[in-house]
Amino acid sequence: MPIYLQLMERIKHDIISGLLEPGAKIDSVRDLAARFSVNPNTMQKALSELEREELLHAERTAGRFVTRNKLLIESIRYKEARSITEGFIKRMKSLGYSEEEIIEFLPYTFKEEE
What we know:
Domain HTH gntR-type: 1-69
Pfam families: GntR
Radius of gyration: 18 Å
Protein name: GntR family transcriptional regulator
Distance between the termini: 34 Å
Organism: Aminipila terrae
Number of strands: 2
Keywords: DNA-binding, Transcription, Transcription regulation
């Protein structure tokens, strides 16, 4: 996966998980590039794509900010959760589990986390 897509996924995850709150100012391109040890042009591309997806927006002299659109964030969060769930189900089925067995398996998984 190209680096800029990996960066997009990381920032998107931080937004939909609540680590970056709606309206939060994000660091500059240079600061983010230094933190992730990437070229500033690569970081700029990732941020521009997130702007295109409307998860970020730029204010001329103030920098970039996370969208305040909570419905958009929740929609993306739901889609991500759905994708993870579908991937889990496909993998479990590839191991030979039936839908019923997968459903029965879940409560045990939660108990192990406690």
